[in-house]
TrEMBL record, chains A, B:
Transmembrane segments: none annotated. This is Flavin-nucleotide-binding protein. InterPro entries: Pyridox_Oxase-rel, Split_barrel_FMN-bd. Gene3D superfamilies: Electron Transport, Fmn-binding Protein, Chain A (2.30.110.10). Pfam families: Pyridox_ox_2. It comes from Echria macrotheca.
Length: 269, 269
């Protein structure tokens, strides 16, 4: 961790307007939310349309200049996406880079109260604003590909056929987003307490269940491709599935300050 | 279902450029993806910023004029969000409504191949383009609140204190997005087959695991609020958790044409 927590500057477009006791501006929190998201939503303006374009893309944060940079340090967002030809071209043709908005959101629980209006979510969301340019330098492109690959599955890169060949490098576009500012929001805790006029309503509190339904992402049993020849699942993949599931579940229950239940009723699918 | 599947018009900003064998334009598929998402990302242009604003919001599709409308019919998106004061104001002050881009994405699996460049995801994503206006009519506002509430947890509305009182109606803003067009993308199946020069590499195929790691959202054990008086979890909530978990898991495995495994190794958290 950096000696002191770095924060993004509060600018009009990045300042959380409401419930700002939930607002986060420290890089460590915001970058953590972005890197925990399997996909990011990238929005940018399109010349002849009143609608921003929004594309789901794979991405991860890193620093080519300081590969050892900490999650709380100044980092760039590296993006890789299939549907982004439009984005790539716009990024190429704009001088300082294409202004993009990068969003990541996780839901950690459904918070149920006595009346729908006070229902809420436990969640983590982050938005970064920055300028996207196409990465042309070979070394940086390779660095970004590895960061993005291992960002999804730790250690996958060296456990595949790498480096990519010339054709693959050619056909793959990587964007680097220089972040100018950003913000995040995190909501944890149990369901909000209702107003007294509801809490004092005996019949109501006797019929309406209140509390939190934890929500988290689960990775299932890896299913080999028909021609897969590695009969036993490699340890790094077994660990990835196990740890991802443990961490996701732990976060959802930690958010409401309860132990992860031993029995797995929640998975009785 | 409508007698014939309705499709959104292909307009430049809504046309999927690449891998368009995966592109979907039928309303039923696209609306289903949107309604299955617990949160939506709403992007819109901001006057004095080069960056689109993107907000995570709760939303669900419906039709106030034809409440019985099918998922494949023409529907509006109803949005409810806490952080959207800026959005609400813009929507109020723009005549035909504020142009917004509504995005929803689900990841159903990680597809692992011999080389990172051919790695892929099983996913469902949808984007809708439309004009957002503030819902002022009381009846429609109530309709929207119920649709959004029950869209997250079926039957929750009538199992809470409703209708909202005057103060709650006042403090709650609902947006209606009249959809002009949209598109979706769905990827299913096992990991893509690699190029022959990799498949023919004995050492490579013997060391690199290929296949799909299913991914799905899980709801945990509901945790009552401290003052909850409904000791037994109501049936509609028990069913919601059970069915949501079964459906999410089933989709992820169906996407790769395999049975949901009986044993729950995947949940060994």
């Amino acid at each position: 961790m950096p000696r002191q927590d770095l924060e993004y500057p509060r600018e009009p477009h990045s300042t959380v307007k409401r419930y700002n006791h939930q607002a986060k501006y420290d890089l460590e929190t915001i970058h953590g939310i972005v890197n925990a998201a399997p996909i990011l939503h990238i929005s940018f303006n399109v010349p002849d349309s009143p609608f921003p374009a929004t594309l789901p893309m794979l991405g991860h944060m890193g620093s080519f200049d300081r590969p050892s940079a900490d999650i709380g340090d100044v980092l760039e967002v590296y993006l890789h996406g299939y549907v982004s030809s439009r984005l790539i071209n716009s990024a190429r043709n704009s001088e300082k880079g294409l202004p993009v908005t990068v969003s990541a959101s996780h839901i950690d629980g459904l918070c149920l109260t006595l009346t729908p209006n006070s229902h809420n979510l436990n969640y983590r969301s982050a938005v970064l604003f920055g300028y996207a340019t196409v990465v042309d330098k070979l070394e940086e492109k390779l660095y970004a590909m590895e960061v993005i690959t291992n960002g999804i599955i730790p250690d996958r890169w060296r456990n595949t056929r790498t480096p990519p060949n010339a054709a693959e490098m050619q056909s793959t576009s990587i964007l680097r987003v220089k972040v100018t500012t950003g913000s995040g929001k995190v909501r944890t805790g149990s369901a909000d307490l209702d107003k007294n006029y509801d809490l004092d309503d005996e019949d109501l509190v006797k019929r309406v269940w209140t509390g939190v339904i934890p929500m988290y992402t689960t990775l299932g049993e890896p299913v080999p491709r028909g021609d897969n020849r590695v009969t036993e699942l490699p340890g790094y993949l077994r660990d990835f599935v196990k740890e991802t599931n443990e961490d996701a579940k732990a976060y959802a229950y930690d958010a409401i300050n309860v132990e992860v239940p031993k029995k797995k009723q929640d998975d009785d699918a």
